Amino acid sequence: MSGGAGLRAARAPSVKNKAPASKQITAEQIVRESLVFGEEQYQAPERRITSIAELQEYRVEKRQQFENNLRKNGGGNLREYLKYAAWEDTQGDIARARSIFERAVESCDYREPNLWLKYAELEMRAKKINHARNVWDRAVTLLPRVDQLWMKFIHMEEMMGQVDNARQLFTRWLAYDPDHHAYRACVKFELRHNAPERARETYETYVGKLPGSKSYLSYAKFEARQHNVASARAIYERAIELLSDDDTYDETSKDLMDLYVHFAEFEEHKKETERARAIFKHALDQLLANQTGSRDETPLYQAYLEFEKRNGGRRDVDGAVMHKRSQAYEERLKEDPLDYDQWFDYIRLLEEGVADDLAELREDIRFEEESSANGASVALAARVDELLAPVRDVYERAIANLPLKAEKSYWERYIYLWIKYVVFEELTACDIERARKVYELLLNEVIPHRKFTFAKCWIFYAQFLIRNDKDLSAARKVLGQALGMCPKPKLFKFYVNLEYTLGNIDRVRKIYEKFLEYDPCDSAVWQSYAEMEAMLAETERARAIFEMAVAQPVLHQPERVWKAFIEMERTTARDRNRARSLYDRLLEKTNHTKVWLSYANFEYEPLPVPMDEEGSDGAPADDDAPLQTRVAKAREIFERSYQSLRRNSPEEKEGAVLLLEAWRAFEKQVLEALQAAGEPSPSTDALAKVDGLMPRRIKRKRRMADEEGFEEYYDYAFPDEVGGEAGNAAAGLKLLEAAYKWKRAKQDAGGGSNPG
User: How far apart are CA 174 and CA 381, in angstroms?
Assistant: First the structure.
């Protein structure tokens, strides 16, 4: 018992009330309250010194504390020395502070610039200039590569007015061959003291020690600020000549490009626009002529475009932009010449570039043709050819890149290049003969017709011949050649539409016959052929074609042919008996629910009346069967279909349910039609009969085929099912219904009490 009690005691207590608290506390509220009600941080009490003795005692304690800290760290902690010296400085004891700095120089690393900076600043604050000068001199002697020490030393001498001393310091500093910063600081110093010649000498030393775009650009800008245009231009030329000959700078060097850009900007600033343009063009020819990378991203080209936008005309800007984009396309196409999308974009760019000039030339040609009896001059035509030559060249280069595989999927984009080429020659260049040659080359030599073909190319060529030559015989010859070499449905359809438009019905029939010989399984061809004959009032021909179609042993989508056949008998021939016979023949082949529904709807709906037989008041002259007869026929079809589905396809319960729902909707529609016709109280027995045939919907379970477990599904139990699983289910439903009736009766007898 004690063990069981111990286990119960160790078990965690269960939470009985799991409802949320009435007052919710957020994390933000907890943090806010902790800040508001938290305890204040401890602060040491302030020490007040009221006598000299107390001050001396305080100083002794602090010094002892600093010395102890230095001994703890082995005497090499620069941070402690700096704190010690700063405290002595606050006490006004400069000698002690100086002594501490000297100890730091001996004990710590003297190569630390911060030590010398603090030491010299101490002497400067104490106005001990000679001491500070000695400290700075020791610092720059020991650390000549630290620019900050030189700059502080020179700044102190300059502030004291010792310009010569500062200049001597610059001379000492430059003797160590420092970086660009030292030379620029020296130049600024000389300019502050009105010594431009000394600054120029410094620049000469600068470009001699550090030859490069950075030093030369600074020198040239200096001369430009001094208004020495010739000297600045000479410096730019020296720099370009030097860097171009230097092996360390290749032709695509960014420094060399920057030098050209600044040189051109200098000339532009001096209003020398032509000089600037010449510099840019020279740079582009020298630096980017043989470049393999992308050229439009280079700073040189970007600067040239901006220059043309500021100073050039519209054509100069457009030409520069087009040239830039052309170079980019050329680079991409060098990497992948089979990228046909890039060829399309490149061609579109070139066509847009020559569009304005071509329009002007066309206008000049039109004006000469109207004003001169001899027509346009040969010179203008030559100018058009010269203008379009680059575009044609790109077209020829593009179509020369045949796909690697002889598969149609690889040729689709390639063929559109040819199509775009012939459209360009016909519509843009207006050269019909050249367009014809392109078509003939494409169809006779390029496309491998034995493996595959492109019907659109044959069709476009036939349309081209009709449009430009008005030669139907040549177009027919092209289409006949296409059908003989590589027949395709698209070619047959185009040829049929062409001849039908021209009214050549005999030719259309011959083409349809060839089409059916090529593909007798295509139901759309049979349908279109028969419908054409029906439109021509050749009903017997149409029937014969439909009969041949439904008699085919293999036919794709035969339901289309049957539907079109029945629709022709119903609408064109208006022969209900023939249409009914077709429905019966179709039902011998299939027992599909949709066929039965179409059959019933056909029996109920009146036959359409031709337009020439309508009454004078606009209403159709109905010579069809009356409504009651058609309703009876439709009910007969519904009954036949239901019996056929339940007898021949008992497993197709969904189809039977769909049929019954359509039947019930039909009966409701009949009741509404009879009431609209004036019958006061039509019989509802037919509707009740259909309701009596409606099945019950049952939810069941069945074992899943691929997985363990069961799944739910809905089944239907029809009233005519007796025995078997469905019959047992129906009987079970009746038993369940009887149980519910007994339960309700018992509740009514007990005064409404719930026995459960």
Answer: 70
Among residues 133, 156, 136, 132, the alpha carbon closest in space to that of 146 is found at: 136
Distance set, CA 365 to CA 144, 232, 383 (Å): 79, 51, 11
Are 150 and 140 in contact, with CB atoms under 8 Å apart? yes
Alpha carbon distance 695, 328 (integer Å):
73
The residues of the chain scoring below 70 in pLDDT are 1-13, 15, 38-39, 246-252, 288-297, 312-320, 371-377, 609-624, 679-683, 721-737, 740, 750-756
pLDDT at position 6: 46
- C-alpha angle 431-433-436 in degrees, rounded to nearest 5: 110
Helix (H, G, I), strand (E, B) or coil at 149: helix
**Predicted local confidence at residue 1, as pLDDT:** 43
**Burial status of residue 505 (CB atoms within 10 A of its CB: 0-12, 13-18, 19 or more):** middle
What's the pLDDT at 12? Answer: 63
Q: Three-state DSSP class for 620?
A: strand
Q: Write out the two tokens for 742.
A: 């007994």
| Nearest CA among 499, 503, 501 for reference residue 513 | 499
Tokens of 449: 């017709």
Separation of alpha carbons 93 and 101, rounded Å: 13
pLDDT of residue 629: 85
Point out which residues pair with 712 in neighbouring strands: 701
Residue 289 belongs to what H/E stretch?
none
pLDDT score for 660 = 87
The pLDDT assigned to 168 comes to 94
Q: How many Cα atoms are found within 13 Å in the side-chain-facing hemisphere of 83? A: 11
User: How far is the CA of 257 from the CAs of 219, 346, 404, in angstroms?
Assistant: 17, 27, 41
Q: Which residue in the block uniquely carries the two structure tokens 């470009």? A: 207
pLDDT of residue 18: 76
Do 122 and 98 touch, CB atoms closer than 8 A?
yes
Question: Please, are residues 653 and 695 in contact by the beta-carbon 8 Å criterion?
Answer: yes
> What pLDDT score was predicted for residue 619?
43
CB count in 10 Å sphere of residue 321 = 16
Match 């409701």 to its residue by tokens.
668
Q: Residue 440 burial by CB count (10 A; 0-12/13-18/19+): exposed, middle or buried?
A: exposed
- The beta strand positions in 304-348, using DSSP E, are none
User: Do 399 and 417 form a contact (C-beta atoms < 8 A)?
Assistant: yes
Count Cβ atoms within 10 A of the Cβ of residue 411 and give its class: 0-12 exposed, 13-18 middle, 19 or more buried. Answer: buried
Over residues 273-286, the pLDDT tens digits come to 888 888 888 887 77
Structure tokens at 205: 């030393």
Give the rounded distance of the alpha carbon of 664 from its chain centre.
Answer: 53
